[in-house]
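Standup, Tuesday
Yesterday: got the pipeline producing structure tokens again.
Today: sanity-check two examples.
Blockers: none.

Example 1:
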Amino acid sequence: MNTTEEQRSHGAYFSRVDFGYSLKRTRTRWFSLLLPVRIAVVSVLLLVLAVIAVGVAITFGDYPLNLLQVWQAITGAGEEFHQTIVREWRLPVALAAVVFGLLLGVGGAIFQSLTRNPLGSPDIIGFDAGSYTAVVITMLVVGTSNYWTIASASIIGGLVTAFLVYVLAYRRGMHGFRLIIVGIGVSAMLGSINAYLITRADIDDAMSVGFWGAGSLNRVSWSSMTPSLIIAAVILLAAAILAPALRRLELGDDAAVTLGTRVGRARLGLMVIGVATGALVTAAAGPIGFIALAAPQLARRITSSPGVNLLAAGAMGAALLSLAHLLSLVIAQFYRAIPVGLITVCIGGLYLIFLLIRETRAHYGTPR
């Protein structure tokens, strides 16, 4: 059997693998696509919810607007002052809530799938902490707040931390639970480094970094959002290309190799993509925790799928961050402005406690 026949055989076998959800085949002259029906429907509904949430969020602010005025401003039919408020000030923030939530959901799904553990998200493993530390060093030690410098430092910091955690956790193979435990320890060490740098910095710089570290979308503008959109498009495209390999890896390395997947390259590429999702968000808006942790598992339960799915997890992440952004604006109307990162941490912390209790019982065989 030649190489082409082997690839066709692997493709035919892969198309018959039951992943636990119904698939609809879409075939054209140029490509063939297997579309999970329930996952696609749920994802569309979640994205619609995210759009509605950010649409309502645009109406809030020091100069309140109604939904009709927002729509007229977006379409260019409203007053010039309203167009300036919506298009220049509030629209990039609303867009950031959807796109960054999408990125965080995809990144969380990748690592939870690779580690086969619901605790395996970049913010828990410590990769986001590495990005944050690199940005803190760039801002306080190097003394620059240039977007491209911060974005580069954030991605490099996340990748270096990922490599360090991987090396420390590797013992005759990689076990997901060990990777998470080592990641939590590395994250704690990086947190102490951040605290030391902030306490030794000038008071104005320390306050600036501290506010940035809370994770806020309000600082996002078109100058930072435009390059973020370009990079996000590249990251999501790469994730879509490697999504079939990720599903094969869920079957085990032996099965993935049998289906024609180069396990080492696929896992490395997925790890880079997963780190890049959180690093990009950290560079533009600061660390926003627990979206990557909660989105894949919530999406899995809603779609009733046996494993995490990148599309559903991304849509759930967009919905969660958009709703958290809306909640922060509602709270600001009655109390004071609260960064969206603090809201996600408060709500996500409760979810983390639930996961820790459940995973501890499952790990030690305690009845639930």
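Example 2:
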Amino acid sequence: MKHATFDLDLTPASAIPGAALATKNLPALDLDLVDAPAERTIDVLLSPGRRRVVFMNAHCCNIHRRDRAYREAVAGADLRLPDGIGVELAGRMTGDRLAANLNGTDLVPALLAKAAGQGKSVYLFGGRPGIAEAAAQRLSRDIPGLRIAGTRDGYDGAADPQAAVADINNSGADILLVALGVPMQELWLHRHTHDLTPDLALAVGALFDFLAGTVSRAPEIVRKLRMEWVWRLVQEPRRLAKRYLAGNVSFLFHAALRAYGPASADDAKRRLLDLTVSTMALILLSPILLLTALAIRLDTAGPVFFRQVRVGQDGKEFTMLKFRSMSVDAEARRDELLASSDRDGICFKSKSDPRVTRVGRIIRRLSIDELPQIFNVLTGEMAIVGPRPALPSEVAAYPKRALGRLAVKPGITGLWQVSGRASIGFDKMVEMDISYAVSRTLLVDLSLILRTFGAVLGGRGAY
């Protein structure tokens, strides 16, 4: 059987200055999380010293907010590692970007691969009967030289905590993996941390199920899109629906309240609308997102996403996401095509733009290219409803009145977007956007969201 390989920096732990990790406090979560690349994190975790480590994802943060005992267990951990797209989005709400997504499913096998080279052993504790053993067998196959000190299930094997602690200690394990589920695994480690002898203890959630093959991991393209949670929801809808549907909305809403504060009741309600609509859209449209990403990858060389700096509320710049619908040299060729614009005014648009790819023409016609902006809504850089986000070069050329459209967040849809898009001239677009900015209400936003479906099906001005 082919062994798994892990491309890591093999710097000896003893050579790490101070063997410490940088952390960053995310105000939206009120948590200090590790802010370091995976390689550096692994080196420090395997360096001399005793450490208890927990992973924090959106579900963990929801429990952290309402469960005092779990909150104390997390606070007592030596390190808290950021896990998943939810934590990343919460950081971006306040402009905080962490160095890496340190999810346990990827990090722990890589850590064990390096531990094997150092002669360290691991004990697996948790899961249904037989799962820890199957996970240990998988690790032994994938990581030559890894020593399995012992295994114990999380049912009868966890019924007597003192017996479990004694078995772990008697095994002589250097590393302990505890997979009892959140919050039980963190509470168990917190309760017994001073009785355990392994230097490194990690709460690893569903890792054993992944390793044992009872739960399959999402395809690589799904993981790159940061949508593995959708894959898991599809696999176990009954068990995970509450966590991933209601839970994700609750997580993002509370993170937004911490990040921005309820400036007004209307602002708080509008942000809740944005979070609810964008989260549900992400779930319902995930098959379209995945198929589009695959089509772009097969059609032309280059990245799936197109990233471009746009101007948001009050002139603040941000990076907007779209599906790439043009050739990779599109930006370099823009100036030479300005004269061919079909649209009056500052904003360039050409129905016969030669930079648009075959797949690009289809996804533009159906407005699918705009869907990744859902992530911009989740981070608070955009809203579901608002003016079209402008380029910095366009804003620099704005007449004074046009600056009024920057008074509100730009949106995925809006009055201009449902009224004809590129078929509407710049001056009329400005008047529409200013009119929306001064008279917007939640009812208006809901009406524009509903009108969006008709505008997409009609396709007017979409090219």
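Quick observation on example 2: The chain is about 45% helix and 15% strand. The mean pLDDT is 87.
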